[in-house]
Amino acid sequence: MATAAKTETETLSWTIGGMDCASCAAKIRGAVERLPGVSDVRLSVMSETLTLALDESRTRRDAIEKRVASLGYTTKPVAKPASEPKPTATCGGCHDHGPADTAHGHDHGHGEAKPGAVDHGHGLPGHVHEATPDGVSWYRTGKGRLVLLTGALLGAAWLAKFTVSETTAYWAFVIACVIGVVPVARRAFAAARVGMPFTIEMLMTIAATGALVIGAAEEAALVVFLFAVGEVLEGVAADRARASIRALGDLVPKTAIVEENGETRQVDAAALRVGQIVLVRPGDRIPADGAISDGISGIDESPITGESVPKTKGLGDPVYAGSVNREAALRVRVEKAAQDNTIARIIRLVEEAQEARAPTERFIDRFSRIYMPAIVGLAILVALVPPLAFGGEWSVWIYRALALLLIGCPCALVISVPASIAAALSTGARQGLLLKGGVVIEAAARTGVVAFDKTGTLTAGEPRVTEIVALTSEERRVVELAAAVETGSSHPLALAILARAKADGVPVRAAANAAAIAGKGVTGELDGIAVFVGAPRHARDRASFDAAALEAVERLEIAGKTVAAVIADGALVGLIALRDEPREDAAAAIAELKALGIRSVMLTGDNARTGAAIAGSLGLEHKAELMPDDKVTAIKELAREAPVMMVGDGINDAPALAAASIGVAMGSGTDVALETADGAVLKSRVRDIAAMIRLARAAMGNIRANIVIALGLKAVFLVTSVLGYTGLWVAILADTGATVLVTANALRLLRFDAGKVG
């Protein structure tokens, strides 16, 4: 027996053009998997890549390219996996430094998060995010031009119908239909040749052809046009999602200042090596994950954790790429390479979540796998069995088979479901509820758990003074002293104190000799009185705290508030408590969700005390001190119980938004959150989350009713056609009537009030 030759496979990758949805990926996978020697097929819609293992002794790589091209997609080989990500685009705000913020010693107690796991796969195709020019406008693509052309022909046909003649209009509709259906039919037959005959393209081809055969050219042209519009919208949505990934990469600065042997030089941030020391000036974004080797400063980690109050960090504390140094110069030791930093992990999480949560396959495409073969098979049986087996008259049974095919034409079904979706999307848009397509509506309707981010979602995202404890002076004097040394600062806590002074009518005079003590607080003089404002733990070095003061500090901190101590000439005069308070409608929103049978959970990067205080006041569960990857883990745990809707507003929420069954962004949130999310509440009202779910449930109820109407009428007339009670003209009337009925039912959604409770 001859020894079998050793099989050698090579991993190959291609960039695929035109792959805009999971259905596209499924067709490509199904086509290439059937080729001998092909294994481990992986497709990424987000990065438009195909990766597979190939034994070229059985199938050549150009055969793969030809097979994919036959389905209507373009291929471009990726020579080899990149070993390291290419430089990202420069962050527009990285080096536009305003005046350095006044340093603060306010310690709001966030838990220190540990760096996440190394992303070993970030150098593979699909994980390289380089600056690329804007994509081609939709109307310049082949699909876009097809939509414009068929739309113009439809308009011309309708105009001819009312101004010229029915005959002229009929042929205009025929031309519009043929032009629109030819590329669809080409893809349908290409898929059929590789073993996938019942795709949505085949369904559309049969529906349009059948409608033309029975003389319903107007209906055929409209169906083809709507299908083309849907394909263009899919492409636009996919491009916007890919743009959001690039926006995440832009958070990391393109360059960094490396310090070596007492000298500094500017280098590419993507080339930083573990162990190097980088200088981060006030106002700069930190270029890499690392630990502070020298300096104390307030670090704005809102791009990572979403929290609005900067955290004071010093020697040995971890810092993350993309966060902003607010106060003083820092030296940071690089501990992770560019492809492994926090922003890179966020990008990876978004991509993985997008791929793992493939959109629900279109209902019609699923149904056609059973419905269309059954109808065609039944028609063939009706035409052949009675004449051959029972001596029936051929003309009679062929006529009945033709009637059966006509009543089985899925035109009404093809139109009715998009009609419901379009009506729901229109209603939502008018009411400030943005839902990105029918798949999102379906997911929202199934929601069983809503996970909320805290800062900027359940809360306004801006701290404000909630309480003033006057100890040795009156409240107005405490505010006056604090405001004097905070004047001119852009720190969120300083702005909150100044806002309280304005609200109370307290005159604000700038303190003399105002100065920041990095990591501790601010000082100055007002009317010859030395003033210090800072966290209690630093203030105790400057003044004594009696039992009442210590008790007040503990009470306020247990309530999840940031406490600022105000000291005048070495004496503690009062305490100022600040907190980012819940939105006015947050409690009502949680109650409405509970009434809908939906569980609510708050996920926050803030400290446990603050999280517990906010969650307790709103009556929902909570998990605190979470980094972005922790939120993804929490979402996956919740998903074991029921479909999860994640609601957030920050860049740090992007992975969780993508990992959930449906991600919803607040309208006031970041562009990345809005792009990554499946929907948005444009008015930034928490109660709109419940309204969105009510609208989604109403839309799905409408869709189910439409399906019952469309298929119910067909079922009745299929039986009557086979038995000979109804002929061709009744079949045509039934099909048209079903279309009218389901469209009218869908239009009822235009009057739906999503904000109405009950």
From TrEMBL:
Residues covered by the HMA domain: 10-76
Keyword set includes Lyase: no
EC number: 7.2.2.12
Record's compositionally biased regions (Basic and acidic residues): 94-127
Cross-referenced InterPro entries: ATPase_P-typ_cyto_dom_N (IPR023299), ATPase_P-typ_P_site (IPR018303), ATPase_P-typ_TM_dom_sf (IPR023298), ATPase_P-typ_transduc_dom_A_sf (IPR008250), ATPase_P-type_domA (IPR059000), Cation_Transport_ATPase_IB (IPR051014), HAD-like_sf (IPR036412), HAD_sf (IPR023214)
Record's keyword terms, sorted: ATP-binding, Cell membrane, Membrane, Metal-binding, Nucleotide-binding, Translocase, Transmembrane, Transmembrane helix
Catalytic activity, reaction form: Zn(2+)(in) + ATP + H2O = Zn(2+)(out) + ADP + phosphate + H(+)
Regions crossing the membrane: 146-164, 170-189, 196-214, 220-238, 370-391, 397-425, 703-723, 729-750
Membrane topology: Multi-pass membrane protein
Region (Disordered): 77-127
PROSITE patterns xrefs: ATPASE_E1_E2, COF_2, HMA_2
Predominant subcellular localization, coarse grouping: membrane
Localisation per UniProt entry: Cell membrane; Membrane
Protein family: Belongs to the cation transport ATPase (P-type) (TC 3.A.3) family. Type IB subfamily.
PANTHER family: CADMIUM/ZINC-TRANSPORTING ATPASE HMA2-RELATED (PTHR48085), CADMIUM_ZINC-TRANSPORTING ATPASE HMA4-RELATED (PTHR48085:SF5)
Protein name: P-type Zn(2+) transporter
